[in-house]
Amino acid sequence: MMPALLVCEVTVLITTARKRMYHLLFDQRTHSGRRFEAFCGLFALLSVIAVFVESGLGTQYHLTYDEWKLFVYLEIGFTLLFTLEYILRVLCWPNPRKYVFSFWGFIDLATILPLYVLWLWPEIGVNYVFAWRAMRAIRVLRILKLLRYMPTLHSLWQAVFNARHQLILFYAFILIVMVVAGGLMYGIEGPPNGFTTLSTSVYWAVVTVTTVGYGDITPHTGPGRMVASILILIGYSVIAIPTGIITAHLTNEFQKQRNARLCPNCHKGNHDEEARFCKSCGSALPKL
After folding, report:
1. What residue ranges are annotated as transmembrane (predicted)?
2. Domains (ranges, CATH) in the chain?
């Protein structure tokens, strides 16, 4: 009887600890959760800054062995911290497998892998140098961890998701225009003017419609310049139209959130996100 009671108590303690850890790691509505997310966000930002400083100093100056050791110790510290965070997130998530294969799970895993891969990678000439550069670049993905700590990111994502049909239709139209314009330029200009293949012509169309204009390939004939002018004018819509679509959906999303915060006393909505009390009767508002 006693062992069964002991097992029951241990199970309750583990469950309680997992719930508390879950609220600490994932619940941004609590004070402790916001403090923890600020702590993790700060270290993610510092780790990215360290990567850029290391890359700049390593390229421009010949660092001594002790100076390199400082960056190594920093990387070990950041990796251990993020490893502990990753393990705790997996353990306290209701379905650990689902978290591991989620977007944030992949991001968290990618930010801790570089150091472990380098420890296992054989130090053989060019392969080691390539591995070091590749792993150093992957560490920059830690900047994506900051997205988790931005409360308005959900609204932006929801707006993009709601506008997906309009965006897909618009970019499908732009893709058709790119292919048609590339085919026209391939027929008008041809290989003598740099449009050697159809894919090269489509590449030129993409560069032109985005108003980048590298200048590596340029039209030399009158009809070719006319097509280029049309593409440049179309290019302004590539920026303006998606921006307008997303802005409209984002405004609707913010309006829904404001209307969702109804006062429990007078049942009036349209409150700001930061508001704590009703602007009509002064009653406390429910938390988001």
Report:
1. 38-58, 70-88, 100-122, 168-188, 194-214, 226-250
2. 2-150 (1.20.120), 161-260 (1.10.287.70)
